[in-house]
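Aim 2, interim progress: modelling of the heme C-bound target.
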Amino acid sequence: MLGPLLFLLAWIVVALVLFFVAISGGPRGARRRLQSPTRQAWRMTFTVFIVVFAGIGIAIPTLVIAGAHRSRESTARTFASTCGTCHTLARAGATGTVGPNLDQLKPTVMRVQNALALGGTGDGRMPAGLLQGAQAVQMAQFVASVAGKRG
Ligand code: HEC
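Predicted structure of the complex, ligand included:
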C-alpha cells in the first residue's frame, strides 16, 4: 500500500527539479540562476532538493523491502496455522504429514491456487476454500516461491 504512494512522491520530486530547471531556461539558465546574487538562497534550495531526493531514494526501497518482508512473514504465519497441520513447508516451520510435503512437491503458483479452490486435487481429503481471493493468491505466490528452500 505504501510503496506505490512513495513511488509517486519520488516522481513528484523529480518533476519539481525538472520544473526548476525548465523555468530557469534549461540547464544553462538553472546554472546561471544558481550563480546570481541570490545564489546563496538558490544553492540552499537546491541542496534541500538533493537531500530530500536522496532521502526518498533510500527511504522508498527500505520501506518497500520492509513491507514485502512483513507481508511474507505474515503469510508464513498463516501457512503455519492454516496449512501446517497437514503440510510440511520448511520456510514456514510447518511439519504436517497428512498431505504431500510441499518442499518436495514444489507446486507452481497455479497449482497451489487450484488446490486452494478445489481442496487439493478435489478428492475430499483437503478442505476447499481455506483461503480465498487476494489471500489465496498471496499464499500461492508464497508457497511457490519458498517450496524446496531450507529454513
Ligand atoms: C486437513 C488437512 C489439510 C489442510 C489443512 C491443507 N491441506 Fe493441502 N492437501 C491435503 C491433502 C490430504 C492433500 C493431498 C490430496 C489431494 O491433493 O487432494 C493436499 C494437497 C495439497 C496440494 C497439492 C495439490 C496437487 O495439485 O497435487 C497443495 C498445493 C496444497 N494441498 C496446499 C495447501 C495449502 C496452501 C493449505 C493451506 C491454506 C493446505 N493445503 C491445507 C490436506 C490438507
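The domain at 83-146 is CATH 1.10.760.10 (Cytochrome Bc1 Complex; Chain D, domain 2). The chain has a mean pLDDT of 88.
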